[in-house]
Design brief:
Elements lengths: L21 E8 L9 E7 L1 H4 L9 E4 L7 E2 L12 E2 L5 E5 L5 E5 L26 E4 L8 E8 L2 E7 L9 E8 L12 E7 L2 E9 L2 E10 L28 E6 L21 E4 L7 E3 L7 E3 L18 E6 L3 E6 L4 E4 L6 E4 L9 E5 L15 H7 L2 E4 L8 E2 L8 E2 L1 E2 L8 E4 L2 E5 L9 E5 L6 E2 L8 E8 L4 E6 L10 E5 L5 E5 L15 E3 L11 E6 L5 E5 L10 E5 L8 E5 L20 E2 L5 E2 L7 E4 L2 E4 L2
């Protein structure tokens, strides 16, 4: 009786993937038409993987590597190669010998061997090629054949599969001999079916915004549809061109990065896409990376990302420069970046290295969450989809992923890939600026200047807007113009909310280059200005009569940092000016010129009033206005 050998725990041997990939045809090549020198994927069926039946739906593909024994895959591997790219371990090169026998060599490795002298078992790949005769299989499907290897004791030697009958295991390819009266065809003897592997080269040049960032080449069978793009980084997808391949060709494919976990710039000259770079998914344990002199991280528990000072927000801004294929330079607004540590696979926070590869970090997603139940955020599904880990572009798998939770000073060590604490998030760099008002004002206000470009965040839910200002000598007012786009660094603006919102949400991720605010005469300061230096500057304020404008500074307080002021030189000698937010007949939105703030108010009958009623129409300084 035929001896069986069960081989378990050998699955890793199947995945030798060196060399260019080839696509497998979906149609079998008749065994009599095999071409010498061509590559084929070989489907194998026998009792050990299909049972004692002619139903070969459980047939699996033959794999081998180097000097190993060849195996028919376990069914559970699901490696149906038809119409897919094939790694070298499934690539069998056929030689048709002069005597019409064939030899089979795994790509980059050895040959299927000749049988042992006793015609039993064996099967170890050999540097010496065995020769096999193609024998028609007595089945309805004539694309199957058996492979015989001579005789021993008047019995024919055939390839068979070792292992248990119809088991879900990888089955070793081996020999056994059979007499003429043996009903072997539908049982023990292995049947083979050959699928041609492509030899027509298709090259995809992957592009982002028209710039080539990667290349993928495969070989397909002429007449096949264009293959599915491969070798794509995590979070990146691409669509194959339409049509069929008839000759070697190169196609440019714009990859889809809509699901990438952050916005990035292909090079440093592009407009930055700034963001907060944080470690840990859960806000309760989150840390934010910052431009610290003694520590690169600070705690940001409960999503308290905003720096304690408006100027300090610049220290928390990061950008990613590069592409998903080569890796990214992780750069702070200060110009410093994460550089591969001199020892180990972690990072130090320092000036960029002159060796480009030292600055590049690859981004990975997939199975990186270590217990979703430990994430306490209501939007954890969204956060998990945007989480990523970083590994240096020159190192391999293992515990080599940056671990912000384990940062020490200006260095970050490494940890395993699957860890919530080692996950990064790249978040919109939003921050809040408070507005001021009182019960008698019809709006809330503030002035602002920052050391970086900014704009109103899309998440801002109120009507607060940014305004530039230009003095109108004919009306004696400061005409205010809404800023629809980006406010440049250091420019001064006024913030106003007609609904008396208490704050405005802004973002440092402007996504477009800032340009000077046309005609803006407001001047911003990101440093405190001493009271003694305010003699030629008007500062924003509210009079006792609740008139809002720019006035000569009173008291002795300095003008705080991140404010806007108006130089007195633009007013032609006036020491106060009101703001005009539209110039309609109702007045200046209840704001009047400061130098006429004490003028008498009359109703439409000409009677002087000391108190106005909201919505009433009144006259002051010869002009009608509606009280707000």
């Amino acid at each position: 009786m035929k001896k069986t050998i069960t081989l378990l725990g050998m699955l890793l041997a199947f995945f030798a993937t060196a060399g260019a990939q080839q696509y497998c045809s979906t149609t079998a090549t008749p065994y009599s038409e095999l071409v010498s020198g061509k590559s084929y994927a070989v489907l194998v069926a026998a009792d050990k993987n299909c049972g004692n039946t002619t139903d070969y739906s459980n047939a699996t593909f033959l794999s081998g590597s180097g000097t190993q024994t060849a195996f028919a895959d376990a069914k559970s591997l699901g490696n149906d190669l038809r119409g897919k790219s094939v790694s070298d371990s499934y690539n069998w090169i056929v030689t048709v010998n002069e005597d019409n026998t064939i030899s089979l060599q795994v790509k980059g490795g050895n040959y299927l061997p000749a049988p042992p002298n006793n015609g039993q078992e064996g099967g170890q790949l050999s540097a010496t090629a065995g020769k096999f005769t193609r024998v028609e299989s007595p089945t309805d499907d004539k694309t199957w054949c058996m492979l015989s290897a001579g005789k021993v004791n008047e019995e024919t030697i055939y390839f068979t599969l070792g292992g248990s009958d119809a088991s879900d295991a990888s089955n070793k390819l081996e020999f056994w001999h059979y007499g003429a009266d043996k009903d072997y065809a539908t049982k023990e003897v292995a049947k083979f079916k050959f699928f041609e592997l492509g030899d027509v080269t298709v090259t995809y040049n992957y592009t982002i915004n028209g710039t080539q960032v990667g290349t993928y080449s495969v070989k397909v069978v002429s007449g096949m549809a264009y293959p599915t793009p491969g070798n794509l980084p995590d979070f990146v997808t691409a669509t194959a061109p339409e049509g069929t391949v008839t000759e070697a060709t190169t196609k440019n494919i714009e990859v889809n990065i809509s699901n990438y976990p952050f916005k990035f710039s292909l090079n440093e000259s592009e407009t930055p896409e700034w963001g907060y770079l944080t470690g840990n998914i859960s806000t309760s344990g989150r840390k934010i990376l910052t431009n610290g002199t003694t520590s690169i991280v600070r705690s940001a528990a409960n999503a308290a990302y905003q720096n304690s000072t408006l100027n300090g927000i610049a220290d928390d801004l990061w950008r990613m420069v590069g592409n998903p294929f080569d890796g990214f330079k992780v750069m702070n607004k200060s110009g410093k970046c994460l550089v591969k540590a001199a020892s180990g696979n972690g990072a130090t926070y320092t000036d960029a290295s002159t060796t480009k590869s030292d600055n590049l970090w690859k981004v990975y997603g997939g199975d990186i969450i270590d217990g979703a139940d430990n994430i306490d955020d209501a939007n954890k599904t969204e956060l998990m989809a945007k989480a990523f880990v970083l590994r240096h572009s020159t190192v391999g798998e293992g515990n080599n992923y940056l671990n912000p939770a384990g940062a020490s000073g200006t260095s970050i060590d490494t940890w395993r890939k699957r860890s919530n604490g080692a996950c990064f998030l790249f978040l919109e760099p939003e921050f809040t600026v408070n507005l001021n008002t009182n019960d008698n004002l019809v709006a809330s206000f503030a002035t602002l200047a920052l050391p970086f470009d900014f704009k109103v965040a899309s998440s801002n839910a109120n009507d607060a807007k940014l305004y530039s200002g230009a003095y109108n000598a004919s009306t004696g007012t400061l005409d205010m113009t809404a800023v629809e786009g980006v406010v440049p660094a250091s420019a001064g603006v006024v913030i106003k909310s007609d609904s008396k919102a208490t704050s405005i949400v802004l973002t440092a991720n402007t996504k477009s280059a800032a340009t000077a605010l046309t005609g803006n005469q407001l001047v911003g300061t990101t440093e405190e200005i001493a009271f003694s230096e305010l003699t030629d500057k008007l500062v924003f304020g509210v009079t006792a009569q609740n008139h809002v404008g720019f006035y000569t500074a009173g008291g002795s307080d300095a003008l705080p940092a991140n404010r806007a002021y108006l130089p007195t030189s633009v007013l032609g000698g006036n020491n106060a000016v009101a703001m005009n937010f539209g110039g309609n007949v109702t007045g200046i939105n209840a704001v009047v010129k400061a130098d006429k703030a004490n003028a008498a108010i009359y109703d439409l009958t000409g009677r002087r009033v000391t108190r106005t009623v909201k919505g009433g129409l009144y006259i002051q300084n010869g002009s009608k206005f509606v009280a707000r």
